[in-house]
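Checklist before submission:
- one chain only
- standard amino acids only
- sequence pasted in full

Submission:
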Amino acid sequence: MITPTTALITSTLNQISAGHFLALYTATPNAGGGGTEAVGYTRLAITFGTITAGSMTSTAELLFTGLASSNVTHYGIISAASGGTLKAFGALSSTAAIISGDQLKVPAGGVTVSFSGS
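Returned file contents:
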């Protein structure tokens, strides 16, 4: 087993701590990009606080509008407002059943990115 050093963990998290966007998915993304991104909305810029003990948490509320009817199940952190590279992803704590015109709010502190050696 290779256990990353604290410096490597911090460096990796620093690469996504600023200048990235939160995307919403209706099918599970994967390390190769994959998944199905929700439609009808705009990705929003996401900011994170200080990296502590191998994790960082979002610092501002995000309000997504314009979503088409769908079941949003996952999120991704992507390097651009359109296109870009998927840097991190995860499952929502519960599926968000969207009816066209609904808004989806992600509270400040609602996204945590963690990296560990296990």
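Reviewer check: The radius of gyration is 14 Å.
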